[in-house]
Amino acid sequence: MKIRWKIDLAISGAFLVGLALAGVGAYTILTKNALEDSLQNARIMIESASAIRSYTAESIKPLLEPQMKVEFLPHSIPSFAAQTNFKMVHQKLPDYTYREPTLNPTNINDRAVDWEADIINDFRNDASKAESVVTRDTPSGRFLTLARPLKVGSLACLSCHSTADKAPATMVALYGSQNGFGWKQGDIVGAQVVSIPLTVPLSRAYQALLWFMLILAGTFVVTIVMVDLLLRALIAKPVAEISEMADRVSMGQLDTPEYVHNSRDEVGSLSMSFNRMRRSLQNAMTMLEEQS
Fold it and tell me: Tens of pLDDT along 195-210?
């Protein structure tokens, strides 16, 4: 095997190892960034929902309280307002969901399903936990779920959820007296839950990874071609010519012209050494002929 081929193989092996390491590193960074971007979007959605809840509790509910004695208006409930607003977002982005599931809701449509109940119970078991991030695999793909606890923080909540006899009669008439009661101040009763699909950000990350690997591979191909040409011009070709001249000299062709390589590198040093050897051999043969 020619020496330049050996060097090409060595460089190729080193490149493949480097390509694998770069691919693993790039995959880790790109997928992590995709998760962080999705998580940031989820936080924005929860902050928006919290703003709607606060505005409803502070501005809308006081205005509707007189009418609540005649007819229960869910528009005055912060949870209803937040989820209703995000239903409009869901119409535009059907994969993006916002819910406020509770373990004991007034409206049974807000009852937590199994995985939501697990998140709520996790908050109840660790009251210091302010946020939960879960990645779930569903038939529709992977979803990033961000959840924050819903705590009974004011007496206003207990006016509807302490006992059925203290709740607005119109609310009891609409939802019944079996669900949504027994709450206590400071209890964690539910959670704000945002689910965002990871299909789009992960596909963008994989596409970026593919382009990165292609560019890196293309750079290697150009590099290896340039290295191969340089090896051929600077080393392989001169060494082959010196080898050919050495063969001729060894066969007795002492009139072989000197090999001229005007460089101060190893090949130039080799050519000078060969030329000295050729001259020494030529002088020795001449002396032998004269003595004979």
Answer: 988 887 888 888 888 9
